[in-house]
Amino acid sequence: MNTIFFDTGSYFIHKKRRGSASQFRIYNNRRECIGYIMQGKAISEKNKKMNVFSEVFEIRNANGVLKVSLSRYRFIFCPEIVIKDAEGKKVGSIIQQFSFFKHSFKILNSSCEVIAIIYRNRKDLCFTISGVAQNEFGEIKQRGDSIRSWNKFDVLMDEVYIKVEDKIAILSSALAINVVL
């Protein structure tokens, strides 16, 4: 599995509108475009008869090679987003926690164990990424504070020594959380 895309500690994501479609570009800390996020729809094999669509978000590198795909069914209360690697193997999932006061997401690995939690900080409207032991190791914050910067945000991650699949699940969740919302 090629993990060079996930070796960067800070990412910058910029949403650009082109006609009716949105395009999300991913940059590294040297301001080089290293990838993008595409949004699409797919029909699940087991739900073909009912024509149930699912949303698919693909994270691709700058050469267009698929790195990770995130998908969820188009039901109103479907809290799970499945994360798959380039070979289609399930790497993890995101479970949205519904609460009136606290907006949070649990990141699960392929064994359905919680490996991280992304929660919204209400003071400065950014997301904080913490481990199971409540140690914070990353954040997702909006770049700037003006109205013109609503489509730009940074993903900052400390180096955490975990398995490669867990790191891919956490980083892909962090990269796509503002896109999926």
Q: What's the layout of helices and strands?
A:
Blueprint: E1 10-18, E2 21-27, E3 33-43, E4 53-61, E5 66-73, E6 80-85, E7 90-97, E8 104-109, E9 114-121, E10 126-130, E11 136-142, E12 152-157, H1 164-180
Antiparallel strand pairs: 1-2, 1-12, 2-3, 3-4, 4-5, 5-6, 6-7, 7-8, 8-9, 9-10, 10-11, 11-12
Describe the structure.
The chain is mostly beta strands and 181 residues long. It contains one helix and twelve strands; from the N terminus they run E-E-E-E-E-E-E-E-E-E-E-E-H. The protein has one helix at residues 164-180; strands spanning 10-18, 21-27, 33-43, 53-61, 66-73, 80-85, 90-97, 104-109, 114-121, 126-130, 136-142, 152-157. The protein has a twelve-stranded antiparallel barrel. A hairpin with a 6-residue loop joins strand 7 (90-97) and strand 8 (104-109). The radius of gyration is 16 Å and the shape is globular. The mean pLDDT is 77.
- The whole-number mean of residue pLDDT values reads 77
Helix content: under 10%
Distance between the termini: 28 Å
Number of helices: 1
Report the sheet with the most strands, covering strand number, pairing sense and barrel closure: 12 strands, antiparallel, barrel
Structural class: mainly beta
Quick structural summary:
With 181 residues, this protein is mainly β. Helix content is 9%, strand content 50%.
Write a concise keyword list for the protein shown above.
181 residues; globular; 1 helix; twelve-stranded antiparallel β-barrel; 9% helix; mainly beta
